[in-house]
Amino acid sequence: MAQPGLRPYLASDAAALAALFRASIEALAAEDYDADQREAWASAADDEAAFAARLAGALTIVALADGEIAGFASLKDNKLFDMLYVRPDYAGQGVGAALADAIEKLAGARGTKTLTVEASDTARDFFAARGYVAQSRNTVTIAGEWLGNTTMTKQLAAPPAAGGTH
């Protein structure tokens, strides 16, 4: 697959991203979380207005492949890699990596020195391969279900100095 195209989140994307969020959790997290845990996690998209507000309240980017939405990612408060979800039929094809590259570059350009992610068990190895280091193991409660995740951080390179000498 060619490198996906990236664009900013639009309010009109909310329904499609909510569906992608649910599909990604259901298909890709099945080895790490049971059906009740996945349903509780995916329920975050049940209130589409609240889900849209979460997307709009962060710097959210959308990946396009073959003219279709293939994934999305968001940066919250310029320091938290808040969401990274890929449509199941595009998993393992570079969509997640392209989105992660963009989020890291955007965070670095905004002066972020350390980027933090609350990585699901499903995503932990993906982030570790990108240089994120586990800081703590967590248990969170979502819709009455306990889910494990790992707080991970990555030191970002300082942006190049403006100007410079020749």
From TrEMBL:
This is GCN5 family acetyltransferase. It comes from the Bacteria. It comes from Methylocystis iwaonis. Residues 4-157 form the N-acetyltransferase domain. InterPro entries: Acyl_CoA_acyltransferase, GNAT_dom, N-acetyltrans/Recomb-assoc. Gene3D superfamilies: 3.40.630.30. CDD domains: NAT_SF (cd04301).
